[in-house]
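Re: the request from the purification team.
They wanted to know what the chain is likely to look like in 3D before they choose a buffer screen. I agreed to run a prediction and write the result into the notebook, where they can find it.
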Amino acid sequence: MMGTRAISAEMMEALKVGRLHPLLEAVQQDDTLCLELRGTFINIYYRGGNLFRVTEKGDEYEIWFDTGYCVYDRSLPGSPPVEEAAALIPRYKREMDGWFHLHPKNEREFQQLMARVNNGTGSTDYYIADMEYAEAAELGARFDMVAFKWLSKGYVRKDTSKPSLALIELKYGDGALGGTSGIEKHLQDLSSFVADPDRLREFTRDMAEVFRQKCELGLVHGLQEKQFRLNVDHSAPEVIFAFAEHDPDSSILKRILNDVNESKYAFPIRLASASLLGCGLYEDHMLTVEQYLQNMDRSR
């Protein structure tokens, strides 16, 4: 059974008008912060690292910060009071900056940037509903990003039955392409996951509810309130690979892609390419494996 990522009505209320509202305001006013829903808690990410984990415990909320990030000020509390946490964010960010200087999280930071760009204006063709999804991982349900493909053309964007499911895997640098977290392993896991239509339907409904809650919290832009509640087509999910900072002199990506047999899989495989330089995701810049390989050959 898969857990839900949507949060309770009580936690939604606390974020919108209650005790957690200063934290929501901090995220709304700071593009370097990202708030993700986790069912019984929320994560507030900074540069790809977990700034705060805010857990619902009955009528109370508990905030946790990993003091292992502390480089300069080891007096910062690991569990700041709810009423003080928002005001302390700049101090916590400074500690994380120091730690990331020594231990960068480039892939997760880039992932957060992608979510910010695609959820920020409503002008791209994809919205990011969730990041770092790892519920029921034994079933292959582990995704860097869960997205909804919803073309930005006016007549399409007005129709809330048009979005379809897209599952995104981000690989940052050529060192992330092989091994147990490589492309072929990810495709095999996805095949197992999408083979169960009931599980896929349950997952998609939860992601649609997460998206609606994020819209209500002011974390997604470019939509009117009547567009918050989506009827998402889960029947043919698109699987997208996004490769960041690939070295064109390296042969590893071409070698791996040459071994991918798209006909083996019951879902379309797409490789994201940029619109010039950028992180915006557009349908016209989604390539098949064959198209991607042809582009690689032409660029050599």
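For the purification team: Residues 106-299 form one domain.
Please add any questions underneath this entry.
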